[in-house]
């Protein structure tokens, strides 16, 4: 059509084909004229050719379809893929008709054990037995088996299996059945592999969660809005907030005790202090880093380093005490000898008949010599804090003996002393050193209450320790001085009131007994010294 209506006119216009003879007749005819075929005029040459091309294509397609018969291949394809096709009712004898046949056919595609399990489940559900099932039950069993295969292989394939289509040749049936079995086996293997992969994934997830839950570090994951998405067991212990209460809550609210704010742009890692509403303040080491996976957010890690810091401070203090102790031993020895000579000369001169000025000067010299002697004695005591033999000792006796020493001191007359000693087991102690600790604490309380006040002493057992608490109502200690009170030579009393070694000696003695000594004080409200010594289980 395109050659006739387009190419022939173009060739005649170009002079390649001469318009004469048959060509002249065609162009002169009212029906055969290629520029106005069958007398159709008014269209341009492209529209004219397109119209007649479509017309003849449709005409020949319809004519050939009506005059020719459909092939077997076309019939099979239409039966399988045309939705409107309705399956004819084939005779029952061409389908699996017994329970064994249905189970065998089903087992070819889902496996014998799975097929037997499916059939037994159907019989149990419908109160049938293998021996008593009738034709109606078999029909329902075939329907159930077809439904099972439909879920595995699709409705079309399951229909081909359970309905003996006459459109298939025996060889085609064998090929299709073999293909379906291969597909079914592949599906079973894929399901097994998927189930194993899921099992491994669950195990890996549980293993990872167990690790995170078991580590002694507080771990929390946060989304972009800093809301908690995960909160492990250690974080519960550090904050006192359960996982259920923490999830989906903004971390800034939950961890408002953190100082400085770990969520600020300036701090992403470092030591922070947590002033909890329950229990004592904690020293934490915090890390905040951004998650790099598909899920955006942050991971917060908190480490409780309170005990570590305390051990470091104790080690530093013990090292300093040891160094100063060696220095003190040398100083007391070097000063002690000349000081004894000066004291002897002063005493010898005081026996002479001297003027009043000289006598006054000698008394002043003697006063300062005695003060230096006390300092030397304290240095010697500090230097001689080496391990000594410890014996079972009753703390009540030591405290009463110490109180007897100070009851005649005029400075204690204005102080009301109240002691309470609960039943405690004997402890292996050095009685002299413990008495020295008690005496130093009593004298320290006396100096803190020059105008009088209250001093309470409590001794009691507590969780495997014996706790001794000395509480006074004195002027207290400034916050900036509290961490220095156990340092050697540190004193807030002034140069004429003490050497600053008393509490250092107490600290060293208690440490030598395996215990701890702590201080609680607030300016203007008094001071509490808390001593804890472990109970020796052998006693």
Summarize the structure.
With 539 residues, the chain is α+β, with helices and mostly antiparallel strands. It has helices at residues 2-13, 22-28, 45-67, 72-81, 99-110, 112-125, 135-153, 155-162, 170-214, 233-239, 243-246, 251-254, 306-350, 356-383, 395-406, 431-448, 502-512; strands at residues 218-222, 228-231, 258-259, 269-274, 282-290, 298-304, 391-393, 415-421, 427-429, 453-462, 465-472, 516-522, 526-534. The chain is 52% helix and 15% strand.
Describe the structure.
There is one protein chain. The chain has 539 residues and is α+β, with helices and mostly antiparallel strands. Among the domains are: 1-67, no CATH class; 99-167; 212-304, Beta-Lactamase; 388-534, Heat Shock Protein 90. It is 52% helix and 15% strand. The chain has 17 helices and 13 strands. The protein has helices at residues 2-13, 22-28, 45-67, 72-81, 99-110, 112-125, 135-153, 155-162, 170-214, 233-239, 243-246, 251-254, 306-350, 356-383, 395-406, 431-448, 502-512, and strands at 218-222, 228-231, 258-259, 269-274, 282-290, 298-304, 391-393, 415-421, 427-429, 453-462, 465-472, 516-522, 526-534. The strands form three sheets. A six-stranded antiparallel sheet has the order 2-1-6-5-4-3. Strand 5 (282-290) and strand 6 form a beta hairpin. Helix 5 packs parallel to helix 7 (135-153), helix 7 runs antiparallel to helix 8 (155-162) and helix 13 (306-350) packs antiparallel against helix 14. The chain is elongated and about 180 Å long. Mean pLDDT is 77; it is low at 83-94.
């Amino acid at each position: 059509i395109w050659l006739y209506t387009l190419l022939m006119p173009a060739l005649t216009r170009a002079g390649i084909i001469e318009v004469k003879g048959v060509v002249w007749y065609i162009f002169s005819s009212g029906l055969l004229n290629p520029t106005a075929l069958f007398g159709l005029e008014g269209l341009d040459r492209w529209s004219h050719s397109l119209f007649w091309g479509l017309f003849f294509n449709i005409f020949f397609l319809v004519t050939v379809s009506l005059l020719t018969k459909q092939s077997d291949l076309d019939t099979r394809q239409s039966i399988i893929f045309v939705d409107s096709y309705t399956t004819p009712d084939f005779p029952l004898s061409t389908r699996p008709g017994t329970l064994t046949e249905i189970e065998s056919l089903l087992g070819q595609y889902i496996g014998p054990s799975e097929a037997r399990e499916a059939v037994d489940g159907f019989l149990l559900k419908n109160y049938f037995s293998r021996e008593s099932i009738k034709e109606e039950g078999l029909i329902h069993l075939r329907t159930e088996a077809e439904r099972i295969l439909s879920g595995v292989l699709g409705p079309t394939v399951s229909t081909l299996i359970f309905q003996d289509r006459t459109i298939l040749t025996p060889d085609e049936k064998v090929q299709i059945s073999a293909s379906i079995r291969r597909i079914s086996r592949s599906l079973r293997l894929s399901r097994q592999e998927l189930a194993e992969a899921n099992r491994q994934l669950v195990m890996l997830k549980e293993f990872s969660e167990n690790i995170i839950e078991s580590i002694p570090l507080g771990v929390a994951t946060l989304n972009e809005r800093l809301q908690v998405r995960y909160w492990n067991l250690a974080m519960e212990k550090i904050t006192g907030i359960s996982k259920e209460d923490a999830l989906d809550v903004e971390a800034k609210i939950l961890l408002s005790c953190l100082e400085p704010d770990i969520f600020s742009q300036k701090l992403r890692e470092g030591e922070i202090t947590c002033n909890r509403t329950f229990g004592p303040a904690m020293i934490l080491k915090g890390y905040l880093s951004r998650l790099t996976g598909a899920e955006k957010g942050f991971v917060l890690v908190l480490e409780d380093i309170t005990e570590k810091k305390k051990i470091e401070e104790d080690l530093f203090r013990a090292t300093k005490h040891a160094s100063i102790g060696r220095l003190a031993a040398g100083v007391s020895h070097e000063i002690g000898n000349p000081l004894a000579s000066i004291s002897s000369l002063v005493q010898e001169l005081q026996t002479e008949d001297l003027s009043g000025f000289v006598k006054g000067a000698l008394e002043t010299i003697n006063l300062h010599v005695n003060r230096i002697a006390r300092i030397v004695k304290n240095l010697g005591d500090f230097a001689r804090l080496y391990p000594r033999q410890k014996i079972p000792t009753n703390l009540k006796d030591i405290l009463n003996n110490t109180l007897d020493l100070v009851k005649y001191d005029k400075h204690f007359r204005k102080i009301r002393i109240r002691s309470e000693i609960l039943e405690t087991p004997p402890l292996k102690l050095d009685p002299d050193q413990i008495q020295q600790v008690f005496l130093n604490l009593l004298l320290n309380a006396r100096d803190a209450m020059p105008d009088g006040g209250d001093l309470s002493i409590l001794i009691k057992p507590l969780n495997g320790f014996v706790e001794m608490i000395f509480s006074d109502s004195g002027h207290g200690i400034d916050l900036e001085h509290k961490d220095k009170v156990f340092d050697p030579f540190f004193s807030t009393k002034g140069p004429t009131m003490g050497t600053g070694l008393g509490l250092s000696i107490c600290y060293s003695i208690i440490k030598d007994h395996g215990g701890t000594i702590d201080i609680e004080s607030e300016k203007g409200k008094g001071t509490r010294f808390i001593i804890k010594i472990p109970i020796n289980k052998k006693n």
